[in-house]
Automatic annotation (TrEMBL):
Name listed for the protein in its UniProt record: Enoyl reductase (ER) domain-containing protein
Keyword ATP-binding: no
Lineage: Eukaryota, Fungi, Dikarya, Ascomycota, Pezizomycotina
Record-stated family: Belongs to the zinc-containing alcohol dehydrogenase family.
Protein source organism: Penicillium vulpinum
InterPro entries per record: ADH-like_C, ADH-like_N, ADH_Zn_CS, ER, GroES-like_sf, NAD(P)-bd_dom_sf
Transmembrane segment boundaries: none
Length: 381
């Protein structure tokens, strides 16, 4: 057992808010197929916020728990039947999959039959509050990386020993395991976008920026970035967007109108990362015949998308869900690192580092749009 600090999420006091606090915790020894990781860094993802802002019992969530699912660190212990890492190895972390169901066997681990319980719910008996012994749900997304030390499923681990050129890259690459990966995979896997495609990207967080960079890499004919934060729109242009649409502009009417002023026929692909209902609906209308809208952002839980079935039949439009970009992390993360070294996936322009004790500053930056990807540093706690 080791003692360290962790961000403990308790049931929200107010709806749609988080109730996080930095606390001292006891971390158990790793069991079979598990690894003890000393975290160096962990990105904050919108999913961490969504899945710690719902009432106890909703979506299978149990409190108190430790979230975090874009971790990076050093292996400090290994359980039985661990084959991919040794003590001292640097690791990058991503989501959990069972490795044995049909979807996993077919190289679609994000659609693992156990994805929801294995990632959203987590497991007990790995971590507890120091002193009181209060049980914490851990192994969130196989890792619970909002902690100095955590028990991690081997399925969530990528050995980074041959991927890193220096120690600082471990913290730089920590957020590749979810947000950037999701945007990258939405373009590369879910839609297989290419030079003939016109792409509309709604929302310029890490997912949206990952999609923009990948659409540029795949030479998409037009890349339209949509957001309400001017700084993000300017950055998107530098990363490859060919057009910007500012939804906060007084000249902005509807998304469909704005898109068709640029491309009268509409776009072939919409990447929807916001979860905002009116953007989902207008995004669908912005696609041309046989176009695709990819749904990534989580809308309000009670929201239901309604559409004219006959119109869908006549237009041949596709509505696609997307988890983790349908990526295999052991393939996607090295690919993004390769692109980074080539100057085509500059995640360093999109990340801001915070001491783990200053996690609230990272949350505030996400909320006001000034920070695209906050990354918490756990060294020196």
């Amino acid at each position: 057992m080791v003692i360290g600090k962790a961000i403990v999420a308790r049931e929200p006091v107010h709806p749609l808010t988080v109730n996080w606090s930095l606390e001292e915790v006891d971390v158990n020894s790793p069991g079979e197929g598990e690894i003890l990781v000393e975290m160096r860094a962990s990105g904050i993802c919108h999913t961490d916020i969504v899945l710690t802002s719902v009432p106890n019992g909703e979506l299978g969530i149990t409190y108190p728990k430790v979230a975090g699912h874009e971790g990076a660190g050093i292996v400090r212990g290994v359980g039985k039947n661990v084959h991919t890492v040794e003590i001292g190895d640097p690791v990058l972390l991503s989501f959990y999959s069972c490795s044995s169901c049909q979807q996993c066997a077919d190289s679609h681990p994000a659609y693992c039959k156990d994805f929801a319980p294995g990632n959203y719910s987590g497991h007990p008996n790995r971590m507890s509050v120091h002193g009181s012994g209060e049980e914490l749900w851990a192994r969130f997304f196989g890792q619970s990386s909002f902690a100095q030390y955590s028990i991690v499923s081997e399925a969530s681990v990528l050995n980074a020993k041959i991927l890193l050129e220096n120690d600082n890259e471990l913290q730089l690459f920590s957020p590749l395991g979810c947000g950037f990966q999701t945007g990258m995979g939405a373009i590369e896997n879910t839609t297989n976008a290419g030079p003939a495609d016109t792409v509309l990207i709604l929302g310029l967080g890490a997912v949206g920026m990952g999609a923009i960079m990948t659409a540029k890499i795949r030479n998409c004919k037009a890349i339209i970035a949509v957001d309400r934060v001017k700084g993000r729109l300017e950055l998107a242009k530098s990363l490859g967007a060919t057009h910007n649409l500012d939804t906060s502009s007084p000249d902005f009417t509807t998304l469909d109108d704005a898109v068709r002023k640029l491309l009268p026929n509409g776009v072939s692909i919409v990447i929807e990362t916001t979860g905002v209902p009116f953007l989902i609906e207008q995004g669908l209308q912005s696609t041309h015949q046989r176009g695709k809208i990819v749904l990534i952002g989580v809308p309000p839980l009670a929201y239901r998308l309604s559409f004219d079935v006959t119109e869908q039949i006549n237009t041949g439009r596709s509505i696609l869900g997307c988890i983790e970009g349908d990526c295999v992390p052991q393939i996607a993360i090295p690919q993004m690192i390769k692109w980074y070294r080539e100057g085509r996936f500059p995640v360093d322009k999109l990340i801001k580092f915070f001491n783990a004790t200053d996690y609230q500053q990272g949350l505030n930056g996400m909320k006001d749009g000034t920070v695209i990807k906050p990354v918490l540093l756990w060294t020196g706690q």
